[in-house]
Amino acid sequence: MKAGIIGGAGYTAGELTRLLINHPEVEIGFIHSTSHAGQPVSAVHEGLLGDTDLCFAADFDLNAVDVLFLCQGHGKSTQFWAEHPLPDTLRVIDLAQDFRDESAGYVYGLPELQRQRISGARLVANPGCFATALQLSMLPLAAAGMLPDRISVSGVTGSTGAGVKPGSTTHFSWRSDNLSVYKPFNHQHLAEICRSLKGLQNGWDGVIDFVPVRGNFARGIYAMTWIHTDMTEEAARRLYTDFYATAPFTIVAPGEVDLKQAVNTNKAVIGITATEGRLLVTCAIDNLLKGASGQAVQNMNIMAGFDETAGLRLKPSAF
């Protein structure tokens, strides 16, 4: 299968390139970047030095590839299709938020929720990173009709979640040894999260009090969701284990969860704690992999009929 990448200079495109050059069923046809055209891909994504001799392309032919990954900023995908005709047979996986409402014929690409629809889709909108972690924390509750009217969530994200372009809250001297809240109660991923939950739990129209936190690390998301419920820890663990029994990358841990279990992998590692009428669900993911490029490749595998785990059996660091 031949793949093309639009917006090749960003973090997600770098991770996507790393995955695709090692994928047993994929050849990269082009990696497009206006700002770095003609330069070696490894000059920007330095971790790929020695792994590929590909260069960024100034031009591209959408008819020469089977699948296209859109890795540009939010709003750019809509603009891209306004400027380029969509070939009839081209599969598209969009990593921006433009079509996560399933407009323009796109299917929302969270495999644990929509694997069957993704398998028959030609256009897939990849979920957001926080949206992935939070949905995986709540889907089993929604499917069981157990979501309360009000849900409390907090999550800490690494600096790569803000993208490659430097900003006042992403440079090292500010981010290091520091924490800060941003977009409390109105994060942009809440819309797609609520759509999914309402689709599973008929009649749910609750509120998610979500407080995102900028972490002092580069990659990963650690999300904490808690509700009031009489469900025991044993029952909750069984609920989550059964729901994710066929999900190869979503793992219910036997004990406490930490970020290093998930970073540099496509895993979502879920922890369950229940005590005195309260349930805490923790979820650790890598924001650039399960929260972006790894999930995009997972979606590609499902769309193409490949093994869902192809090219994604990545191991975390032992330290």
From TrEMBL:
Gene Ontology MF terms: N-acetyl-gamma-glutamyl-phosphate reductase activity; NAD binding; NADP+ binding
GO BP terms: L-arginine biosynthetic process
SUPFAM superfamilies for this protein: Glyceraldehyde-3-phosphate dehydrogenase-like, C-terminal domain, NAD(P)-binding Rossmann-fold domains
Active-site residue numbers: C129
SMART domains, per the entry: Semialdhyde_dh
Gene Ontology CC annotations of this record: cytoplasm
Pathway: Amino-acid biosynthesis; L-arginine biosynthesis; N(2)-acetyl-L-ornithine from L-glutamate: step 3/4
PROSITE patterns named in the record: ARGC (PS01224)
Subcellular localization(s) per the UniProt record: Cytoplasm
Keyword NADP appears in the UniProt entry: yes
Domain Semialdehyde dehydrogenase NAD-binding: 2-121
Catalytic activity entry: N-acetyl-L-glutamate 5-semialdehyde + phosphate + NADP(+) = N-acetyl-L-glutamyl 5-phosphate + NADPH + H(+)
Function: Catalyzes the NADPH-dependent reduction of N-acetyl-5-glutamyl phosphate to yield N-acetyl-L-glutamate 5-semialdehyde.
NCBIfam families in the record: argC
Similarity remark: Belongs to the NAGSA dehydrogenase family. Type 1 subfamily.
Name used for this protein in its record: N-acetyl-gamma-glutamyl-phosphate reductase
Gene expressing this chain: argC
